[in-house]
Write a structure and sequence with these properties.
Structural class: alpha/beta
CATH superfamily of the largest domain: Mur-like, catalytic domain
Subcellular location: Cytoplasm
Number of helices: 17
CATH class of the largest domain: Alpha Beta
Pathway: Cell wall biogenesis; peptidoglycan biosynthesis
Helix content: 25-40%
CATH architecture of the largest domain: 3-Layer(aba) Sandwich
Radius of gyration: 23 Å
Strand order of the largest sheet: 7-8-6-9-10-11-12-13-14
Protein name: UDP-N-acetylmuramoylalanine--D-glutamate ligase
Mean pLDDT: 92
Largest sheet: 9 strands, mixed
Main location: cytoplasm
Keywords: ATP-binding, Cell cycle, Cell division, Cell shape, Cell wall biogenesis/degradation, Cytoplasm, Ligase, Nucleotide-binding, Peptidoglycan synthesis
Length: 479
């Protein structure tokens, strides 16, 4: 991609309003481009349109005009969630017009060094945690990207004294060309978003774009326990800092007593007691950072997130002995194994962000108490039988909603569960989830956990996982 000033007086199309589309349109307009913003929603559903038009930016709502893309378009910036199969994007591809996401534009605007964090699970928690670790060490992080604040908005305010800590999705990364983070982290890879990517190859290559433009002056943080992450090593030019829960590393961040590869259960009744997160630089320096039982977040997968966050923070210049405080004081991010309430001895947790089976398996293995699981959502073709091992011996009942309720019910039956409740209040999604919470509370006893961890995306019933989680929390507080 050219520098932003190179688009002065050039025609640029921004596809999709939303927060990132609005901000990137403003950035390109300020750079002197002739910007047209297009959204298929009707005008009354696009309240941002008037604000942009007041700035002199053209806005077209209500569909994609046939003549939107022509040879005179110098750049197409698309909302990350818009598939490459929609007509304007297909036409841009045919005309060989550069197609990027807002992340690429923001990169050329940003003066701060960038930390880019991606993965199938744990992105938001790790990104937020890294921000806290850098802040507690006296650095000046700005947390942005897929986590909430559009990167281009944050980039406009950043200075070289900041660190830009950015959560990135595969959708965003697929639309990058020159994007180069100073520190890049790939947490893990699970089978997800295949309806968008069309297969794992495109999904993995989109994630791997995080490393494509890095040089030997940059750092790549990789999950050494994930074979897909490890297979990328020959293609990475940056210095690599691995993290592992299952290996003692010569250089990197690891556990004093590694877990057995593939294990989910604790080695003993004391669980993580006795394990310590350790950093070693490969040249003789080794430091014990924190005992695992003192980490502020529950769950084996949050130990993994903590390892990654430590490696990233150390790569950014934080001394290992400065990490313990923020690791122990950090609490859950909303919708990610979020404690909601304890009512009559029953604890309620909102894990609405669990939009695939791997995330739900991680949540189920985080508790020793019996679980009543609320799950179900958008059907992407999985049979959910990978949930069976985590259900056995942990889940005492399931309450199921959404398109996948019958599939997950079949998996639960194979796991030996007897209490399998299907809830469907027709088109009223909020009423369905509220009924599911009531059913779960009726099945629960003092000492149990009621856990919303859907293993599915929300879009069959709710506009987002955030809405789904908020309705769950409201239903719990109204019990």
């Amino acid at each position: 991609m050219k520098q932003l000033d190179d688009y002065r007086d050039k025609k640029v199309v921004v596809l999709g309003l939303a927060k990132s589309g609005v901000q990137v349109a403003k950035v390109l307009h300020q750079a002197g481009a002739s910007v047209i913003v297009n959204d298929r929603k009707e005008r009354e559903q696009c309240p941002e349109a008037s604000e942009l038009e007041a700035l002199g930016i053209s806005v077209i709502c209500g569909g994609h005009p046939d003549d939107l893309i022509d040879p005179g378009v110098a750049l197409l910036v698309k909302n990350p969630g818009i598939p490459y199969s929609v007509p304007p994007v297909r036409k841009a591809l045919e005309l060989e017009i550069p197609i990027v996401t807002e992340v690429e534009v923001a990169y050329h605007l940003c003066e701060a060094p960038i930390i880019g964090i991606t993965g199938s699970n744990g992105k938001t928690t790790t990104t937020t945690w890294v921000g806290k670790l850098l802040e507690s060490a006296g650095l000046s992080p700005i947390v942005a990207g897929n986590i909430g604040t559009p990167l281009s908005e944050a980039a406009a305010e950043a200075t070289p004294d900041n660190w830009m800590v950015v959560e990135l999705s595969s959708f965003q990364l697929k639309g990058t060309e020159e994007f180069r983070p100073r520190i890049a982290c790939l947490l893990n890879i699970a089978e997800t978003h295949l309806d968008y990517h069309g297969g794992m190859d495109d999904y993995i290559s989109s994630k791997a774009r995080l490393f494509v433009n890095q040089t030997a002056d940059d750092t790549a943080v990789l999950n050494w326990d994930d074979p897909v992450c490890r297979n990328l090593v020959p293609y990475i030019k940056a210095r690599i800092i691995p993290f592992s829960m299952t290996e003692t590393l010569r250089e990197g961040v690891y556990l004093s007593t590694p877990y057995a590869p593939g294990s989910q259960d604790s080695d003993d009744d004391e669980g993580d007691v006795g394990r310590t997160i350790i950093y070693t630089d490969g040249e003789g320096f080794t430091h014990e950072i924190i005992r695992v039982e003192n980490i502020g977040l529950p769950g084996r997968f949050n130990v993994d997130n903590a390892l990654a966050a430590c490696a990233i923070a150390i790569a950014a210049g934080v001394a290992p002995d400065q990490l313990e405080g923020a690791l122990s004081s950090f609490r859950s991010v909303e919708h990610r194994l979020e404690f909601v309430a304890e009512l009559q001895g029953i604890s309620y947790y909102n894990n609405s962000k669990a939009t695939n089976s791997k995330a739900t398996n991680m949540a189920l293995t985080s508790f020793k108490e019996p679980i009543i699981l609320i799950a179900g959502g958008l059907d992407r073709g999985s049979d959910y039988e990978d949930l069976i091992p985590s259900m056995q011996g942990r889940v005492k009942a399931v309450v199921l909603i959404g398109e996948t309720k019958e599939k997950i019910a079949n998996a639960a039956a194979k796991a030996g569960l007897k209490d399998i409740i299907l809830v469907d209040n027709g088109k009223d999604a909020a009423a369905t989830l509220t009924s599911a919470v009531r059913k779960a509370s009726e099945l629960a006893e003092s000492g149990d956990i009621v856990l919303l961890s859907p293993a599915c995306a929300s879009w069959d019933m709710f506009p987002s996982f955030e809405v789904r989680g908020s309705i769950f929390k409201e239903a719990v507080h109204n019990l």
